[in-house]
Structure formats: C-alpha cells, structure tokens
Amino acid sequence: MKKLINQVDDVVAEALRGMAAAHPDLIEINLGPDYVVRKGAPVQGRVALVSGGGSGHEPMHGGFVGAGMLAGACPGAVFTSPTPDQIHECTRRVSGGAGVVHIVKNYTGDVLNFEMAAELAQAEGIEVASAVIDDDVAVKDSLYTAGRRGVGTTVLAEKIAGARAEEGGSLVEVADVVRTVNASGRSMGMALTSCTVPSAGEPTFELGEDEMEIGIGIHGEPGRERMPLEPADRIVDRLLEPVLSDLPFRSGDRVLAFVNGMGGTPLIELYVAMRRVAEALGEAGLRLERTLVGSYITSLEMAGLSITMLRLDDELLRLWDAPVHTPALRWGM
Amino acid sequence: MKKLINQVDDVVAEALRGMAAAHPDLIEINLGPDYVVRKGAPVQGRVALVSGGGSGHEPMHGGFVGAGMLAGACPGAVFTSPTPDQIHECTRRVSGGAGVVHIVKNYTGDVLNFEMAAELAQAEGIEVASAVIDDDVAVKDSLYTAGRRGVGTTVLAEKIAGARAEEGGSLVEVADVVRTVNASGRSMGMALTSCTVPSAGEPTFELGEDEMEIGIGIHGEPGRERMPLEPADRIVDRLLEPVLSDLPFRSGDRVLAFVNGMGGTPLIELYVAMRRVAEALGEAGLRLERTLVGSYITSLEMAGLSITMLRLDDELLRLWDAPVHTPALRWGM
Description:
The structure is a homodimer.
Chain A: H1 11-22, E1 27-30, E2 35-38, E3 48-55, E4 72-78, H2 84-94, E5 100-105, H3 108-123, E6 128-133, H4 153-166, H5 171-184, E7 185-191, E8 211-214, E9 225-228, H6 232-246, E10 254-261, H7 267-283, E11 287-294, E12 304-312, H8 314-321, E13 324-325, E14 330-331
C-alpha cells in the first residue's frame, strides 16, 4: 500500500490538522469527535448547513466549509459514516438559532446516523431539516443503499443552498433549495482503477489491465457493468446517456456540467472528457451555462471520473454564482 | 495504459478544447500552433506574461491564464518543450504594447526555444524580458537541465508577477518580480509511482512496491535517491530540510508553503503532509503566512508530492493576495 500517511489510524485526524494549519482564516476543527466548522461559528440568526460522510472523498465535505457554503462537516473514518454523537455535537456547535439543515448522501449508515443526530438536536430545541441527495442513476438499490446513491450533486447542493443560507434564507427555504438541486441533478461515474482503504491495506476490488467499471460507486461498490476499456468519448457517452435521459433533460434546458475526477485522475484527462461533454450537450440542444472541472468528490486514489448534470433556473444560477470562500471552492471573495 | 483519452496524438488538442468549452469567460485557445490566451487579449498598455512548457503538468500553465495571472500559455506535446514559432505567435497575440515577460522553467529545450521566440518577437519590435525559474534543490544538473530544474515556484511566480502586470507594472518591474520570487523560492519533490507518457505507452520508470524516489523531477527524471517507503512525516522532513537550508530560510521569516500533488495523489494525503509541514515550520521559527495545497504542477498520474517554500515580504504578500481569476486559481473576483 503506497500512501503518504503515517499510522493508518491517524489518517483522518492528521488530515484535519493539516486542513486547520492550511486554512486558519476559514475553518476550525474539533478532534474527538471529529468535525470541521466555519471559523467563528455559529453565525447568529443564520441557517447553518451541516453535511458529512465517510472520509476518503476529499475535498468533500470539510473542504466545503466556509462562507457561503457549509457551516460544518463531519468526517467519519475512511468510507464509514460519522456517528450520531459526532453529527449532533457539530450541529450544536454551528447552530445560530435559525435552524440547521442536514445534507445527507443516501447511504444507509449516513441516513440512520443523521436521523439520530437530528433527533438528539431537536430534543434540545434546535430545529433541524434534513434533505437527502440520491442523484446516482447507475443503480436503483446498491451495496450500501436503499434507493439511489448520493454522489456529485451533493457538491452542487452544498454550494447553492449555502448561498441561500448566507443571504438569510429560512430553514424551510434553504432545505427546499437542497431538494430542488437534488431533483434537478443526475450523476454517474466510472473507474479505471480501484482504491485501497488504509485500514484494509489492499485494493477494494480488482480491475484487469484492460477493464473499466461503469456506474461505480464512490466506495468502489459495483456499478452497472465491467467491460473493456474504451476511448474517452465513448466513456463519456456511456455516462451521459443515462444521466440525460433520466431527469429527463430537454432541448433548450440550461445546465451546469460537473466533470469530476475520482482522486487519481490527472486534470488533462478531465478536460479531454469535458470536450466531449460540451459537444454532446450541444448535440442534445442543451445550453452549457456553467462548468466545474476537477476532483471534488473522490474515492481516495481511484482513477476515473463522474459526470453530474444540473438543470439550472435563474435562481439556482444566481445562487451558484454567489460568493463562496472555502478551502476547495472560492470565488467572489 | 489506462487513461481517459481518445487517440494518443489528440490528447493535448482535445484537452485544450475541453478547457475552452469549460471556461469561455476566461480564455481563448488556438490550435496549430497550440496556445491559450486570456479572453479579449491583448490588454492594451499592459505587460503580458507568457509561460509554457510540455503538457502533462496541468493545470500548469494553461490553467493559470486569466485576469491577474498569465496572458498566454504555450503547451508543447506531453513532456516536450513548445516550439519557438508557437511561443512567438502566442507572444505576438498577447502583446499590448507594454512588453511581454517570458517565464521559463529551466529545462534546456524550454530555455532555447523561448530564447529563439524572444528574438523573433524582438525583431518585430515587441520588447521581451525573460526570467528563468530554477528552484528545485534536488539536483544541480540533471537529465534535461544545466543547473537546477524549474518546478513549483513557477506557479507562485506566475501568480505574483501576474498581479504586478495587472496593476500596470512596467516590463522591467514585472520581470523583476519573477526574479525576486525565483530567488525567494525553493522546492523539492518525491514520487510513489511512475507515470506513463501516452505516446510511450509504458511507465517512464519503474519503482518497486515498497520504494519511493526522493528528489524526482516533474518528467520522472531521476532525483537524489531511491529508497524504501517511509511514513509521511519522515518524507516531508526529507524534502523540507534541503529546501529550508538552501535559501536559507531563517527563524522569523514569513513564508508561503505550497504542498503540491503530482497528479495521482489524493487530497487527504496532501493534508496529512501539510500537518507536518506546519509543525516543522513552527519548529524552525518560520511564520506560516499563506498556504497552497492541491495539485497545481503535476506529472500526469504520478503519485507523490512536492513542497515549495517561498519567503514573503510585504510586497510579495500583497501581490499574492491580489484578485485572480483563472481556471485553476481564483479569488477576489
């Protein structure tokens, strides 16, 4: 196992300490339980967004904590849900009196633990609204989910709803924005290689030298099909077709295209894929209004990519463009 | 060779077309010869910065074209210098009458070709000032250089000098900023894995399952030492010690620490390394004023990292903090 780590058990805490050292102007961390909160949290009178999930998907979610995005993030062990206590304590820490929105990716452990945390917080008088992301069109049920998995749309929902919270939206309004983004976003991913969870010490799965997996999950869980490697354009088409036909996106729709690297994918390959995405959207009559190209929801060192398409309206576009300042996404400030 | 590409010969042009599709508000591209320029270039009356080098190091350099950074970037074939004609044409395209600064990484081919391009431009009446980056402390001469190689400090020089150009600095002033940054920055890198140049189809070099290479170059050229894999903290110390002792950095110095991924390194590992960087700087009495953590000067899918330290003064800090809007670096706008 070739990784830049020290002790296997220290990876998450050490990465959080590295984040704190790198971004003291943006975030604060707590260790035991582990969470990242916006510097100076809580912001009184503002709705606070909290997300979380297993570690190994960086920059998601800790890298999205800051002005205009998340108030708090709870990283579990690698590919393991955060605990109810952890989420509860983070929720309490960022609560500014206007309520807390939990953004939950649809994995069984995450959903259960966020539910328990919400109950604990509500018992103390903190209003919590939960919104689940389940945008992965690859599979209906899966290894870790009832229903679809939550993947790339999560990043977009955190940005867009974070902007609504920042400008003073109510608890109901901010949670509704998360639900609107989830209803308007669809994703699918693929892998060229596996990844190795540090505590396991060996690859989560094996892929032959000429194989790829289409519809892979962000924990390496099986997708739709294992098949021979193909040219990038054909791979993009294999992901885009089910993504576009599911919503469905229609000619004339305005869209944000998010081409995401899985962690070990060089940027030059993401732009090769982006070229075909733009071309294919043109063929479908879609209007490419915004893009996000980079590794934002990853699976350790897995090579591969996912494509997320979000249908935009004026309000989502306005909130996407609003200023944000986090370790991983920043503009306008 | 597992890559998200189509035809090997099309990788660079297709990636450029993907960049153009993703960032139409920021850049324009030309194919044959290939270059990326700031949208609307030239900016009349402003000094223009042009850089370039082999492809495979994305986002460097094309990802740094935009307001407050580069006016133009010339990508060669993968790990191959751009041609004199290519650099010349890009120089002419971005020239706004106030002169053009060439930022050149110290590799024999790059230096020669930029020199020839500068002569061609000067023969047409375009003033060109060249500044070479040679910040890699790993080796004195190397496979592709007389003298030290140019690596991570290039990114910082492009940002900082770009800010000086944006605010109206003269040709001499902007070139002097590049030289000051080069004189104040030191870098060293390491690799856990090799990388595969698409046209070669097999790894540039081989590393055993328990081996790493310290002092690696960004084209996979040999470094100082091949040795058994060690914990991340020990690796950071092996890079930091020669970096800090070379300038030398002294107790009380203000510094920017740039922890850079080689392309296939997950962000969680860069933050694990960042933790030790911050700790070690504290032990050395250095003041960590700014950080940059991410994959900005890469070697295709190589796993590994490099560390660049830049000594800051008030002026460099002011220029670093100035607004920038490029595909890969953005703040303040």
